[in-house]
Amino acid sequence: MSTRVLPRPAPPRALPFRRTLVPVVVLAVLLAAFAPGSARRALAGPPAAAVVPAMVSAYGDTGGTLAVALTAQVERPDGLSGRALDARDMELSYVTADNGPAAVRPFPTASIVKLFVAEEVLHRVRTGQLSLEPRDWRLLQDMIRSSDDPAVSELWDRFGGTQMVRDVAARYGLKGTRPPADPTQWGETITTARDLARFLALLPTVAAPADATTLLVWMRTATPVAADGFDQRFGVFGTAPGRPAVKQGWMCCLGGNRHLHSVSVVGTRVVVLLSEVPRSVGYDRATAALTAAAAALPPPPTG
């Protein structure tokens, strides 16, 4: 059965910036400093106490909710087996700055679930559970690079999408991630900012190195315009220097709201932005607000 995708209005033509006071925005900022080395250095810069208010102020008044999670990717220690790196057993030392419950607030993933689908398919191929044809590889790449919906719908139906979500959540220790209540609605998969930060942070250690590299390369070569014509250059994609590894998501109108998300890996820094705004807030305004929040994050150090 094909996955039904909620209809979307015409894509926005521009991403203007708006800076206003923020009365109803919920901000969750999760800062994780893992093992010493490049991951810890990636989080150097202004303290979270200074960064958080800047991002909140820049997001502006949308009448909605913003969740932000920042962390750093974990490096794979030499000589450890895959079992030793199992996320369910891995102890992560967090240095946090957040406003409590917002870090685990559930959001529908929209197209961000495509990261889970791609990682699980790559894992099944690596472990001999699947064999893919050249067309399947094109579907995976298009699903990530241009956020192609028919591609993920086909893979979701063929390979058991709800079980893929469960398997990824188990392997990465994602406590707030679960399949959609309606198994045909992949965009209604539930996750949290904290879970997405954990998933991207642990990707180099839980996934096979080649699979992690493949997924990050697809993210790093995201197309400016999505397969459905939506301009993907918002959030981190619209602000981060160089070629960040990004995945964008947008959906309307579950529960009368629009959902607009941007997740990325910039160097070794992981940035997660999840947002929900009332349907009355158009995509132009919603993308501008998310881009402004991302622009308020200082660039990672080059040294």
UniProtKB/TrEMBL annotation:
> What is one Pfam family matched by this protein?
Beta-lactamase2
InterPro entries registered for this protein in UniProt: Beta-lactam/transpept-like, Beta-lactam_cat, Beta-lactam_class-A
Domain of life where this protein originates: Bacteria
The molecular function terms in GO held by this entry are: hydrolase activity
Transmembrane region positions? none
What keywords would UniProt list here? Hydrolase
Q: Where is the Beta-lactamase class A catalytic domain?
A: 138-224
Question: PANTHER family given for it?
Answer: BETA-LACTAMASE, BETA-LACTAMASE-TYPE TRANSPEPTIDASE FOLD CONTAINING PROTEIN
Q: What's this protein's name? A: Serine hydrolase
Task: Specify the species.
Answer: Geodermatophilus maliterrae
